[in-house]
Every structure is written in structure tokens, then in C-alpha cells.
């Protein structure tokens, strides 16, 4: 089954404690991306990657890091989380021709 | 830069009534347009997409959308809504560079409420 898998789905952490949200896709897509969803703001792109070892900033990259060492994986790293990073995070992938995004089920992060 | 506006934050419709959700976009070239639906606690599911060709696009769950270039709009419609259609709906426009698609710009969403 074609899917994008994120983990963890739910996480509560404290300010400053590094965390990683993993993302994996099995569709051999070149493109992967992270979005955050906040009430009243819709989805905003954090980072994206158009291929292995190629990453770029989206609209709201501050406080986040990503890496793309393998085509299927695209982890999101919060080196020092802060409360304003409390949000619902989505990983997505697509092929470069269509741009149609396939989303994971989301990771709800709370930073205390 | 591209942008997407969904003018209606909330819409309430009676079950069995028709539905139209509005979407306006700003994009310099011919847009690739999408509608996604998000049910409570779920991820986003693609309803339909427009790339080129026929401006009336059919999607899943009985939804359709019409691309109107002159109005920069891509409104979503359904002739008769069901209680299970209650969800958040997002319109999006594709972003493309020389290397290909590099993401979507989303509207802020429209929350659809179905009255019995």
C-alpha cells in the first residue's frame, strides 16, 4: 500500500529537549516536504527536498532542521523546541511532475 | 509569489442541500490546482486536481470543481451533501521551479458543518 508514515503521532516534550519526527514514504517519490498546521493559519511549509542531499527552506523554517540521506526518509529535527512550535505536523511526498502531495497522518507535538 | 484565498472560514449546510466552497488564487502562470479534505483527526486526502484541459474537474466522493481563469477561481461543488462530508477543506496551488514541483501553497481552509 502506498503511504507516508510519520512517527511519533503524538508527543509531549519540554522546552529545549531535542526531538526528531521521522517520515518515510514507499512510493519512490523524489520530493518530500514538511508542513505545520495551526488554527486559522492553514498549512505552512517548513522545509522541502527535491532529492537526496538536496533540501531547501519553505515559508517557516526557523527552529527546524531536516536531512535527506536516503530517498525514502525525511526526518524533521527540532534542536531546541520552544512552545511556539506546538503544532500539528505533516510530512508529504510527491513526484516532481505532478506536484500532487500524499500526506502522512500527522504528528501532534506539544512543547511545554 | 503565489497565494490562495478561501473567503469562508465556516460554512453550514443542511444535509441534502447543495454546496459550493470558494477558492481564489494568485499565480503568474497556468496554475496546477488542488482541493484536499481533512476529516477530524486525520491527514489530508486529495479530492480532485486540475492540471490542464477540461475546466470542469470531477473528483472523489461526488465532488467537482471548475477552473475559471478570468476569475482566478477554482470553486468546489457538490450537488447534495452527506453528514460524512463535515470536514475541513483546503484549496491549494502548485509551486514549480526549473527542477519541478516544489510544494503547494494552501489556503487557510473552510470548515464545513452539516446540519441534520
Structure explained in plain terms:
- The complex is a heterodimer of chains A (112) and B (116).
- Chain A has 112 residues and is an all-beta fold.
- Chain A contains no helices and 11 strands.
- Chain A has strands at residues 4-7, 10-13, 19-25, 31-38, 42-51, 54-57, 65-66, 76-78, 87-94, 102-103, 107-111.
- In chain A, strands 2, 4, 5, 6, 9, 10 and 11 form a 7-stranded mixed β-sheet that branches.
- In chain A, strand 5 (42-51) and strand 6 (54-57) form a beta hairpin.
- Chain A starts with a strand and ends with a strand.
- The mean pLDDT of chain A is 93.
- In chain B, the strands form 3 sheets. In chain B, strands 2, 5, 6, 10, 11 and 12 form a 6-stranded mixed β-sheet that branches.
- In chain B, strand 10 (87-97) and strand 11 (100-106) form a beta hairpin.
- The radius of gyration of chain B is 14 Å and the shape is globular.
- Chain B is built from no helices and 12 strands.
- Chain B is an all-beta fold and 116 residues long.
- Chains A and B meet through strand 4, strand 5 and strand 10 of A and strand 6, strand 10 and strand 11 of B.
List the helices and strands and how they pair.
The complex is a heterodimer of chains A (112) and B (116).
Chain A (H helix, E strand, L loop, with lengths): L3 E4 L2 E4 L5 E7 L5 E8 L3 E10 L2 E4 L7 E2 L9 E3 L8 E8 L7 E2 L3 E5 L1
Parallel strand pairs in A: 2-11
Antiparallel strand pairs in A: 1-3, 3-8, 4-5, 4-9, 5-6, 7-8, 9-10, 9-11
Chain B lengths: L2 E3 L4 E5 L4 E3 L2 E3 L6 E6 L5 E7 L5 E3 L5 E5 L4 E6 L8 E11 L2 E7 L3 E6 L1
Parallel strand pairs in B: 2-12
Antiparallel strand pairs in B: 1-4, 3-9, 5-6, 5-10, 7-8, 8-9, 10-11, 10-12
Amino acid at each position: 500500500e502506498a503511504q507516508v508514515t510519520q512517527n511519533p503521532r503524538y508527543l509531549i516534550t519540554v522546552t529545549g529537549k531535542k526531538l526528531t519526527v521521522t517520515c518515510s514514504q514507499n512510493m519512490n517519490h523524489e520530493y518530500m516536504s514538511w508542513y505545520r498546521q495551526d488554527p486559522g493559519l492553514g498549512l505552512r511549509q517548513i522545509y522541502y527536498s527535491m532529492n537526496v542531499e538536496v533540501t531547501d527552506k519553505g515559508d517557516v523554517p526557523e527552529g527546524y532542521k531536516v536531512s535527506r540521506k536516503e530517498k525514502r526518509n525525511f526526518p524533521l529535527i527540532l534542536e531546541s523546541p520552544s512552545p511556539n512550535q506546538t503544532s500539528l505536523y505533516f510530512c508529504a511526498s510527491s513526484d516532481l511532475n505532478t506536484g500532487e502531495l500524499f500526506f502522512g497522518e500527522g504528528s501532534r507535538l506539544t512543547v511545554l | 509569489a503565489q497565494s490562495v484565498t478561501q473567503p469562508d472560514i465556516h460554512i453550514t449546510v443542511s444535509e441534502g442541500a447543495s454546496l459550493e466552497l470558494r477558492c481564489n488564487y494568485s499565480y503568474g502562470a497556468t496554475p496546477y490546482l488542488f482541493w484536499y479534505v481533512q476529516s477530524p483527526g486525520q491527514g489530508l486526502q486529495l479530492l480532485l486536481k486540475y492540471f490542464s484541459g477540461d475546466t470542469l474537474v470531477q473528483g472523489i466522493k461526488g465532488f467537482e470543481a471548475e477552473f475559471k481563469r478570468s476569475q482566478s477561481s477554482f470553486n468546489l461543488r457538490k450537488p447534495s451533501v452527506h453528514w460524512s462530508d463535515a470536514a475541513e477543506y483546503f484549496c491549494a496551488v502548485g509551486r514549480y521551479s526549473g527542477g519541478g514541483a516544489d510544494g503547494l501553497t494552501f489556503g487557510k481552509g473552510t470548515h464545513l458543518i452539516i446540519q441534520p
